[in-house]
Amino acid sequence: MTSTWWHDAVVYQIYPRSFSDSNNDGEGDLIGIRNRLAHVASLGVDAIWLSPFYQSPNRDGGYDVSDPRAIDPRFGTLLDFQQLMQRANELGLKVIVDLVPNHFSDQHDWFKAALASPPNSPARNRFHFYDGKGVHGELPPNNWESVFGGPSWTRITESDGKPGQWYLHLFDSSQPDLNWNNPEVNEDFEKTIKFWLDQGVAGFRIDVAHGLAKDEIYQDHPDPVGLTAALRLDVTDIDPEYRKQLLSDIPFFDRDGVHKIYRGWRNLIDTYPGDRFFVAEAWVYPTSRAVRYVRPDELHQIFNFDFLTIQWNAEEIRAAVDKITSEFKNVTAPPTWVLDNHDSPRVVTRLGGGAIGLAKARALAMVTQALPGNLYIYQGEELGLEDAPVLPEHRQDPIFFRTNGVQLGRDGVRVPIPWEGDAPPFGFAEFNSWLPLPAHWRELSVAAQQQDSQSTLNLYRKLLKIRKSHPALGGLAGVSWQDAPTGILRFRREPGFELVANTTDAEFKFTTAKTLLAASMPIQTTGSDVTLPPHTTIWLSE
Ligand code: NOJ
């Protein structure tokens, strides 16, 4: 395969609302991002991915888009976006934006027109409007559950004031699903893709890329509640075999119809110069189904989410790496690695929090950054942030409300990041922030970590620099495992690179003739004797 920049790129995810606020309204914005972009460049990444900044009533953090070709005034203007692009260019960073094709906001003109139009009209046909079941249509067309909890159907009131049809929303009721059987929908999305490509973006992250095609609607699922549980990363009290069975056949995800759409988009993006690409957010089971999204004439990358749930355990990590690298050998796409994002717990928290969680997260980051393929880093991961506590009155995530608070939702991972200073909001904004930053983040701010040679920030900078310059790192050549005791992960990449990770609670002693390149925690060496403390990874070179 001919190599291209996105085969082993490092992409830094920016959640615009929480990155940097330039106008002191408590929310991040595009000028704020532009002003702070040097920080991102200092990490040595290749690109930024911006989560949605499009016009949106913000019921689902901007993933409820009411105009995909307009910028929400909360984030700025098109001129601000263009200036951000220019700054990114100066700093050698490419820009990737989000595309949200499964649904629009209920405030999109199309949905307003659908509500104002009669059943079976062209305006309704852009969404999934159906008559209900039951004598008076009082029951939803099927029993599917929303991924965010609660029913996936909402009944509307028709213009005569009577209860009427139902519309499908796999997420919040403010996010009506689009009907991809209607060619008008694709035409509109191609317009959006062209709009942003013409603005110079290097690619798109496709939201819910596995969701656009649906099965026959008037058909119930045998276990909708079980399916919702199976889809949740945090639910563990479910029989693994039953979970696999549920996940391998979902009437609204990973239907074959999605692939035709992506072949069309691939043709479109290929008409543009430069190596631009699509990355799919597609939760697909098993991996052999996932790689179908990245066949040569389809999308370029698919997120591999295995590391969002992986334990800090050598054997588990090795099995996951083997599975992914072997499946990806059969397609021309590179594997991708993600430790956290705006939807999942921060990796430090997930691995137990506190000093141990941080040690494990740093050690896991070193494993991840040494693997072949692409890396996605979520803002704040480079600071070793944990999920922040969020008071009930500050919660915004529809998951919290749709589950009546049973699930806390994702607000804790979306708290703005700390830049500098002694008191919250630590330079994110001058006075207030839409979600408060914890006081102890003073020590974790960019400015504080800059001064500390052992900080997570300086570790990330160092690792990414080595990753760029070491001839064995980056690229797509695989890893070769070395014999190691239980709990120790050891692999080589050629030429001359070796990684040793100690996932156990005990020290691991070994000898090596190689030079130490980096360590996730300070380690002791005496001549060629190395003592690796618990939960530590090192990189060595010949
Ligand atoms: C995945 C996005 O990452 C998430 O934030 C959003 O809530 C859902 N898709 C629905 O768009």
TrEMBL record:
One annotated GO molecular function is: alpha-amylase activity
A UniProt-annotated Pfam family = Alpha-amylase
Q: Where is the Glycosyl hydrolase family 13 catalytic domain?
A: 13-414
- By what name is this protein known? Unannotated protein
Give a GO biological-process term: oligosaccharide catabolic process
